From TrEMBL:
<feature type="binding site">
    <location>
        <position position="384"/>
    </location>
    <ligand>
        <name>FAD</name>
    </ligand>
</feature>
<feature type="domain" description="4Fe-4S ferredoxin-type">
    <location>
        <begin position="1"/>
        <end position="30"/>
    </location>
</feature>
<feature type="binding site">
    <location>
        <begin position="346"/>
        <end position="350"/>
    </location>
    <ligand>
        <name>FAD</name>
    </ligand>
</feature>
<keyword id="KW-0274">FAD</keyword>
<dbReference type="InterPro" id="IPR014731">
    <property type="entry name" value="ETF_asu_C"/>
</dbReference>
<comment type="similarity">
    <text>Belongs to the ETF alpha-subunit/FixB family.</text>
</comment>
<protein>
    <submittedName>
        <fullName>Electron transfer flavoprotein subunit alpha</fullName>
    </submittedName>
</protein>
<dbReference type="Pfam" id="PF13237">
    <property type="entry name" value="Fer4_10"/>
</dbReference>
<dbReference type="InterPro" id="IPR014729">
    <property type="entry name" value="Rossmann-like_a/b/a_fold"/>
</dbReference>
<feature type="binding site">
    <location>
        <begin position="363"/>
        <end position="370"/>
    </location>
    <ligand>
        <name>FAD</name>
    </ligand>
</feature>
<dbReference type="GO" id="GO:0009055">
    <property type="term" value="F:electron transfer activity"/>
</dbReference>
<keyword id="KW-0479">Metal-binding</keyword>
<keyword id="KW-0411">Iron-sulfur</keyword>
<dbReference type="Pfam" id="PF01012">
    <property type="entry name" value="ETF"/>
</dbReference>
<dbReference type="InterPro" id="IPR033947">
    <property type="entry name" value="ETF_alpha_N"/>
</dbReference>
<dbReference type="InterPro" id="IPR017900">
    <property type="entry name" value="4Fe4S_Fe_S_CS"/>
</dbReference>
<keyword id="KW-0408">Iron</keyword>
Length: 426
């Protein structure tokens, strides 16, 4: 693929020169010319106001029909599958079957010494496992994983690849997408199948005259929905011209399928072509952060505190509350930004998405970015002294009052409440 300047359209405005990160454009008199440093990154095309730059070569010739199946990057760390990988295998299976009965969901396992994870992938819904193992892939490196995944995608041509929006997924997916010259939608909260104009047309017309339809409209595509503009609207994004389509999805958003013990599938071993020179960094040591690990995604009960706590010591009360009810401490971004608590506790659009059985929002107003991360909780209990706080619109139970009075009362009554509950359910 290459980029070329259409000479008679170029007005010599040099905006493409300024936009090019690779110094790949020179001026030949008043006309821009592309030199050999070009990586076809598209920045010049986006910058040109005169439509004078275009791609040539195989870009126009992406055969969408050559791509098939849904791949899920089954992220593992230290030989353990991440929860989000299992959630996405379930979601991938749903999407695959909506695309067509013979579309398969494949788990992509990358690492070394990870044979034991294959079975778990089948039990959570994978129909095929593509296994890529090599000692050089034992620990995650951007270079190593990108290289082998790009090679495997080019060989097998999946039509959709989804990754968890974890630290690794967020690092890896854009690299892979850039190398494959395809699109990526980050942080999706919803994935749906887009129906082609052919199918739409066929539904409404008894005789199908395809000559009027766009031949490039893929038979299927994925509608990728994510919050945009600070969470104030949801944007649905499609990737109509290139393949594979790629998305990252936040942990906790999709539902895991029920585990089917003993489920089986097809294993494909992909032998990676990788050498030490492909990996530009060396991992000398992996040191776990000494800070307390917060497992918000798996928690059944979360007690979150916000700016309404007034100062950092308020989190001591929230911690006492969480310990009493068997929960985990969460927070709003305002509390994190104030330096009252570590970001790992943050719930919301730029924090963690959670779906506990009970979510206590204490001194949290209910900004849309906070709601984006917790509104699908089974039961939401809001404690706020402002009766008009937006959090009450999503709360199942609202307590209007000062959290410093309400929470100690709940703590004091919790044991009684548990006894009452036990008695009522006997
Ligand atoms: C791009 C972007 C991303 C963002 N991502 C996130 C995110 O991931 N998570 C997130 O939380 N926010 C996020 N935000 C910030 C968000 O917009 C809000 O600013 C933030 O959620 C407000 O936090 P809060 O509810 O704790 O504070 P406030 O909005 O100030 O609310 C404090 C509440 O406490 C109540 N209160 C005060 N004192 C008491 C008391 N003694 N007892 C009871 N109630 C009391 C008040 O009535 C008020 O309702 C993001 C913003 C942007 C622009």
């Amino acid at each position: 693929m290459a980029i070329q300047v259409i000479k008679d359209k170029c007005k010599g405005c040099k905006l493409c020169l300024k936009a090019c990160p690779f110094d790949a454009i020179d001026m030949d008199g008043k006309v821009a010319v592309i030199n050999e440093k070009c990586t076809a990154c598209n920045q010049c095309i986006a910058a040109c106001p005169f439509d004078a730059i275009e791609k040539t070569g195989d870009d126009a010739a992406v055969d969408l029909s050559a791509y098939k199946d849904v791949w899920v990057f089954a992220e593992q760390r230290n030989g353990k599958l991440m929860n989000v990988a299992l959630e996405l295998i379930g979601e991938g299976r749903r999407l695959a079957k909506e695309i067509s009965e013979d579309t398969k969901v494949c788990a992509l396992l990358v690492g070394d010494g990870i044979d034991h994870l294959e079975q778990e992938c089948y039990e959570y819904g994978a129909e095929r496992v593509v296994m890529i193992q090599d000692p050089l892939l034992k620990n995650y490196t951007t270079d190593g994983y990108t290289k082998v995944i790009v090679d495997a995608v080019e060989e097998y041509k999946p039509e959709l690849v989804i990754y968890g929006a974890t630290h690794i997924g967020r690092d890896l997916a854009p690299r892979v997408a850039a190398r494959l010259n395809t699109g990526l939608t980050a942080d999706c909260t919803r994935l749906d199948i887009k129906v082609s104009s052919y199918i739409e047309y066929a539904k409404n017309n008894t005789t199908l005259d395809t000559s009027t339809l766009d031949p490039n409209d893929p038979s299927t595509g994925i509608k990728q929905t994510r919050p945009a503009f600070g969470g104030n609207l949801m944007a649905t994004i499609i990737c109509p011209k290139t393949r594979p389509q790629m998305s990252t999805v936040r942990p906790g958003v999709m539902q895991k399928r029920d585990r089917v013990a003993g489920a089986t599938g097809e294993r494909v071993d992909y032998k990676p072509q990788i050498s030490e020179s492909d990996i530009r960094i060396q991992i000398k040591d992996i040191v776990k952060s000494a800070k307390e690990l917060v497992s918000l995604t798996d928690a059944d009960i979360i007690c979150s505190g916000g700016r309404g706590l007034g100062d950092p010591s308020g989190f001591e009360l929230i911690k006492e509350f969480a310990d009493k009810v068997g929960g985990v401490v969460g927070s709003s971004r305002a509390a994190v930004d104030a330096g009252w608590i570590d970001h790992s506790h943050q719930v919301g659009q730029t924090g963690t998405t959670v779906k506990p059985k009970i979510y206590f929002a204490c001194g949290i107003s209910g900004a849309i970015q906070h709601l984006a991360g917790m509104q699908t909780s089974d039961i939401i209990v809001a404690i706020n002294k402002d009766p008009d706080a937006p959090i009450f619109e999503v709360a199942d139970f609202g307590i209007v009052g000062d959290l410093y009075k309400v929470i100690p009362e709940i703590i004091a009554e919790w044991d009684n409440a548990e006894e009452l509950y036990d008695a009522s359910t006997k």
